[in-house]
Structures are given as C-alpha cells and as structure tokens.
Amino acid sequence: MNKPKFNAFSEQIASPDFSVSRPAARLLGHLLPDGKGKTILYINQFEGLTAAATTEYDALILDYCEPVACERFLFELRGSFSELLYLKPVFLLAAAAPQKEMIRQLVDGVIPAVQLAGISNLMEQLLQRNREILKAAHGSENEKPLLMKAIRYLASRKASLIPVPDPDSVIGYSFPILTVSCKSHQFEQVMEAVNEGVKKGFFDPDFISRLQLCPECFSDSFSLRDICPHCKTLLFASHNPFLHASQAATVSENGVPEKNTLFKQNSEAAVMKVSVDYSKPSEIQTCHICRHQTRDPEIKAFCNSCHTESEPEHLVSFDVAALKLTAAGATAALNRSGDEQQAGVMAPGVISQDSFSLFLEHEMERYRSGAFPGTIGILQLQLSAADRNRLGNRVVRLLKEVADEIKPNLAPSNFLSLSYTHHALLILLPNTQKVDAIQIITGFRQDIERLLRFNLAVTAKKVKMIVKEIQRNGFSAEAFLASLLAK
Ligand SMILES: [Zn+2]
Ligand SMILES: [Zn+2]
User: Fold this and answer.
1) pLDDT band at 344, cuts 50/70/90?
2) Which of the residues 229, 288, 381, 487 could staple to 423 if both were Cys, CB 3.0 to 4.6 A apart?
3) Å from CA of 310 to ligand 2 middle
C-alpha cells in the first residue's frame, strides 16, 4: 500500500483545498497532521476503496459529498467484525447532520469543516477506550460475536442503541450497529443478539413497540384471514342476519329471506325473551365453497412477504426498545474470559496473550534501538462455520492439542500463545530473520495439518500462515497483532 505523504494541509483553512493533486486511484486519501502522532485520514474518493485498506489509520474523516458511496463505505467499515475497523473513530464532513438517523448513529460526529481542534479530544477518548477493548478482544469470547461487537461498540461510544424506523427492514426497524453487521435476510441474528443482551442484563431496554412477526421470515406485514373450519378455504362472506319471530324466518339485512342453518330452530324461543319481534345475532359467515355457516371461523395469519400461513399464536413476538448499555454490559465488553487466563496457567509452555503482547512490545522497542529484527508467525486454523458450531467450547481443547504438537520443536528463546477468538497460534521468534522463520513456521504448519487430518470433528484441514518481520511501526503491540489477525 502506498502511504500518502503529508500534504500542505493546515487546520486553519475551512474547506479542503489540496495544493498537490495526486491520482486518486493510488491514494486512499489525505493524511492530516494532528501534531500528536495520530494518523487521521481524510477521504473524499470512495470508489474501489475497501474498509480493510484503512485498518492502520487511527481515525477517518469521510467527505459526505457523494452520500451513496460514502454510506456504502461507512456500512462496510462498521459492518466488519475487526475491532480495528468497527471501533475506529469516524467523522463526517458535511454542511449539516445527515437526515438518516442510521448514519448519525454510525459516525462519531458531523463536522462542517476539516478542523481537528474540535474533535481531537473526543478522538483521543475513543482511541483510549478502544485500546482497552482491543486488549480484551484477544481473549476467547463467552458471548456470540454479534452481541460482543454491539456491547464493545456501545462501550467505546458510551452510547445507547436506538432502533430506527426503517421501511427497508423486514421488521420495520433497524438497529444500527447490529443491522450493518448482518445481511438483510439475517434479521433473526439481530433479534437474537438483542434478546440475549437483554436477558443477560447487558442492555437496559426502554420499551418502544411490540411487534408480531412471521415465524418463517420475521416480516411484520401479514393479513389475518378467516378460514372455513369445514373445507379450510378462506372464501368467506360475512353478513348480519335478522331473525323474525312472527315469520319464524331469517332474513338478510336488506330483507331477502335466507336459509340459515344456525338460527332457524331456536329463533322463536330466542325472540320470545325480548319485547321486539326480531333479534339480530352476531355476524355469521358463510363459506363460498361449501356453504358452511359459522360464527367462529379459524383465523390464520397470512404473511405478505413469504406467503406462508401461520397460527396467530405461533407469531413471534419481539419487543423493540432503546437499549442502554448497563454496567454489566460495559464490564462484559472489557472482560477477559476465564479461558484466556487458563491458557497462561494450564498449558505449560504457552503464555497468555497479555504476556505475548509484552514480549512483542519489547521486540519492537529492540528493533527501534537498532537490534537485529525478530519475526512473528501466526498459524490460523481455517475452521468452517459448521466446524465452529460442532466444536463449540471444545475449540479451546483443540488449540491446546495443536500447541502440544508443536511445543517440542520450539526453540527455548521462542514464545507461543493462543488466540481462541481467531483460532490461531501466535509464535514470537526474537532474533530470527524472516527467511529462517518461514522455514520453521512452515514445519509447524505441516505438523498441525497432519494432526488435523486425524481429527474427525474438523472438516477444514488447512492452516493459514502469516509471517511478518517485527518493525517499529507506530502501533502498539496489541494493535500490530490485531492488524495481523484481521488479515
Ligand atoms: Zn367451506
Ligand atoms: Zn413470512
């Protein structure tokens, strides 16, 4: 990736006016100097730009000049499951706050001009909180990734998740950070995350509306239909009959005598109780097909979206509520799980990720002082979604088995750690050139792939390998590690 050079941009000018124009295709945007060593990228060309390409920048300012392209980029960024992307401070450059509530909730502020003075404090706070979260993000997860992501985003922003009425959403509402993380047909996952977050006490719900949804597709658009209990068709005609005592006959509202099987026998008796010579029982319905008459038709909910018919009692009830992050939620966002701590204690020869980060930090410092560079290697199991479901918590045991496999061949000066989140082994090789490290790590990879061949629970037998020379690159060790794992 070409690093954009600093341009002649200054905080004083109110609108972007770049003295040096560069071909947009090669550059992501313009780096803004903030004087504190932060890399803030101003972007006004979104064509062909992927969110992942901005991983290494601390914060982004997005020009809202092309709203559609800008929103696509913003949704991709916030939709990512990499903490370095979805937690990134993002400001929108626009004359006024955008109309769409969804967009307003997904940016950290709207600024009328590229001036860092007004946002640098907020940005610093966000980056500080994100660092805390990034540390925790290396641990194994107790919660489902979507719920974890939502509470981390809200903890970073100290914000509530406010549902937004959205005609494009299946249920009529969007939950900004959750909705951008799922495909539109995966609304079930959004509801699951909301329900689970409320159940676990991470969210304090402020009730807005109760929805009744189709159990098949979660659409809130359906019609209630009367069904003939006899022939099960939905062709019913309803009418209000009159029972005339004197004529012992039933007539319709407009006086036409009709053959009525429900009331004929007892019409006289019924009418004798009142002082008028007719009575008007409740509406009755006649089936167009089989002429069956009933006052108690079956009721079915017909989904206008997927066209399935359900019993009304089977409709899914879902409460739309504004979700305030509770103290428990904020703690869970930063929580290091028990498994992570166990790794340091229970698997001999494997150090915790915190310790690993410390050693990595140390290596990065050593490199800066002119020492021989070290190398970091990552071996990541390419588990399929089915594998992950099948393994569940046993993935921890699998990773420990894999670690046991390679430990005997690890040099005493090397460090090994495990990332349960990324199903990866982290190997630090101080004082080792990349070319030698590749040879060593490739050997480990072959060992692991051999082991996986005999593991029936895992269908994916391949291991992804990343080998990177350790450099002093302006990142913290955690951010450097996270950027490697995000690849
Ligand atoms: Zn019928
Ligand atoms: Zn449906």
Assistant:
1) very low
2) 381
3) 9
Distance 308 CA to ligand 2 centre (A): 6
Distance, C-alpha 228 to centroid of its chain? 44
| Cα–Cα distance, 250 to 227 (Å, whole number) | 24
Closest CA to 406 of 434, 435, 378: 378
In 122-183, at which residue ranges do the beta strands (DSSP E only) sit? 164-165, 173-174
CA of 92 to the centre of ligand 1 (A): 61
Tell me the ligand closest to 303's alpha carbon. Answer: 2
Please tell me the number of Cα atoms within 13 Å of 100 on its side-chain side: 17
Nearest C-alpha neighbor of 389 from the set 457, 455, 456: 457
> Ligand 2 center to residue 219 CA distance, Å?
5
User: Between helices 477-485 and 120-137, what is the axis angle to 10°?
Assistant: 70
Nearest alpha carbon to residue 422 among 391, 382, 394: 382
- What are 141's two structure tokens? 């997860």
User: Quick one: residue 442, left, alpha or beta (phi over 0 = left, psi -120 to 50 = alpha)?
Assistant: alpha
Map out the domains of the chain with their CATH numbers: 1-138 (3.40.50), 139-210+319-335 (1.10.10.10), 222-313 (no CATH), 337-485 (3.30.70.270)
Distance 231 CA to ligand 2 centre (A): 24
| Cα 229 to middle of ligand 1, angstroms | 7
ipTM of the predicted structure? 0.88
Phi/psi at 452 (5° precision): -65, -30
CA atoms of 130 and 187, how far apart (whole Å): 27
Read off the pLDDT of residues 206-247 as tens digits, 9 standing for 90 and up: 999 999 888 888 888 888 888 888 888 876 666 666 666 555
Q: What single letter denotes the amino acid at residue 170?
A: V
Number of the ligand closest to the Cα of 315? 2
User: What's the gap in Å between 241 CA and the centre of ligand 1?
Assistant: 19
Q: What spacing in Å lies between the alpha carbon of 105 and ligand 1's midpoint?
A: 52
Q: What Å distances lie between residue 143 and 149, 193, 285, 333, CA to CA?
A: 9, 10, 52, 10
Given this model, what pLDDT does residue 230 score? 86
Pair type for strands 278-279 and 284-287: unpaired
Distance in Å, CA 293 to ligand 2 centroid = 30
218, 191 Cβ separation under 8 angstroms: yes
